Amino acid sequence: MTQQQFNPPFDRSAPCPACQHEVRSVSALIHNLLNRCDVGSSTIRDGKAWVRLWDLRHTTFPAALTVPHPVADELMAVGRALVEATEDMTSDGLTIKGSAEIRARVEALIPRAAAASDAFNALSVMHFDDQRHCSGSHQNILREWKGYSWNGHVPGANLGGEYNYTVEVVSEGGDIAHTACGTHLKLHDHFKQNIARDPEFYGQVWCPSCRQNVPMWQFEISEAPHA
Ligand SMILES: [Zn+2]
Ligand SMILES: [Zn+2]
Question: Which ligand is nearest to the CA of 120?
Answer without folding.
Answer: 1
